[in-house]
Amino acid sequence: MKTPLLIFNKNGIYCEAADVYLDPWFPVDKAIITHGHADHSRYGHKKYITHHTNIPIIKHRLGDITVSGVSYNESFTINNVKFSLHPAGHIIGSSQVRVEHKGEVWVFTGDYKLSHDGVSVPYECVRCDTFITECTFGLPAFAWKPQEDVFTEINTWWSENQAEGKTSILFGYSLGKAQRLLKHLDPSIGKIYTHAAIENMTEVIRPMVSFPETTRITKETTKEELKGTMVIAPPSTHGSPWIRKMVPYVTASASGWMTFRGARRRRAIDKGFVLSDHCDWQELLTAIEGTGAQKIITTHGYTDIFSKYLREKGYDARTEKTQYEGEANEMQTSNKEVEEV
Fold first, then answer.
1. Residues 6 or more apart from 53 whose CB is under 8 A from it?
2. pLDDT in tens, 182-216
3. What number of helices (H) and strands (E) belong to the chain?
4. CA 198 to CA 232: how far, in whole Å?
5. Using CA atoms in the order 184, 187, 190, 195, what is the torsion angle rounded to 10 degrees?
6. pLDDT in tens, 211-241
7. What are the two backbone dihedrals, phi and then psi, of residue 183, each rounded to the nearest 5 degrees?
8. Domain residue spans in the chain?
9. Which fold has domain 147-273?
10. What is the CA radius of gyration of the chain?
11. Is beta strand 230-233 parallel, antiparallel or unpaired with respect to 295-301?
């Protein structure tokens, strides 16, 4: 029986012909990394290969690593297997991995979205035979509004809070979501403050993207300074001692999970904005159709429901277990974020 071009084993997604892993979850000799989020970019590999804009990001997070960078659509060969990285549109530096060997083409998406956020390079559809797709939001209930509408809501919310003398605290993951928020906030409303973890990551990315001016919150920052301003903070700070100096404040979260009112209530958030760095239901279907692939492997998210739907539509679809978390990790505490308070 022919060995599949990519297999899922205890360490991750493995290309045996090239002896290389894609976003492995345990230390390996050689890893191709799709993007900088902690569930896809882990410490301990001997050699990392990633898009060149992702190098400063993963070095900031992982420290002294051996890493080489490639450009989008630049082919490189390992043991006669042809690889290339293509824009995933997820966050800055994010990639899909195209793998070609003996006339067979697979694409691993990592995390991705089709709508352009103004920060990352827009998603590129890549034709293939087998498509490995996340389905973090693989339910019909998930349908994103146009980004400009969401940011109109966010900036209006900030203005209203400011008029009431309250600080606006907007929670977003320190890599990706936070920079997307910063890119589209209206600085004419007021001053934008950031948590140290977000400011540190934004400093890494700022040479590549134009952002409004931000001010790091320190121990010396006073409650009076923060009144009426916008504060961008990681979700892990919610309910922490760090946030107490901002009273009176109003909280909000920007996440795909804010589609459900119950998610906002469980997290004790005052306001929810539906804004995700992942595909919604229709984007997933559009992406799959665009690849021309008949074999679909669903990974993290609503895998069983989504793959069942695809089979009903005539695709050869199955699920595979991974250690990727999708947008779930936005609501988990990061050790690095704790250290940088």
1. 69, 92, 93, 208
2. 999 999 999 999 999 999 999 999 999 999 999 99
3. 9, 19
4. 8
5. 60
6. 999 999 999 999 999 999 999 999 999 988 9
7. -60, -30
8. 7-141+277-330, 147-273
9. Rossmann fold (3.40.50)
10. 20
11. unpaired
The DSSP secondary structure of 33-67, one letter per residue, reads ---SSTTTS-TT-SEEEEEGGGHHHHHHHH-S--E
User: Which among 234, 219, 151 is positioned nearest to 186, based on CA atoms?
Assistant: 151
More confident residue, 138 or 269: 138
Tokens of 317: 């679809």
- Residue count of the chain: 341
Which amino acid would we find at residue 195?
H
Residue position matching structure tokens 């969401």:
150
- Pull the structure tokens for residue 51: 């898009």
**Which one-letter DSSP state was computed for residue 290?**
H
pLDDT at 338 over 80: no
Alpha-carbon distance 234 to 253, whole Å? 10
Helix (H) or strand (E) holding 153: helix 147-163
CATH-assigned architecture of domain 7-141+277-330 = 4-Layer Sandwich (3.60)
**Residue 248: is the preceding peptide bond cis (ω within 30°)?**
yes
Beta bridge partners of 47: 30
pLDDT band at 9 (very low <50, low <70, confident <90, very high): very high
Is a pLDDT exceeding 60 seen at residue 332? Answer: no
Query: Per the structure block, which two tokens stand in for 313?
Result: 């539509």
How far apart are alpha carbons 92 and 51 in whole angstroms? 10
The CA distance from 153 to 215, in Å, is 23
- The pLDDT assigned to 331 comes to 43
Which amino acid belongs to residue 325?
E
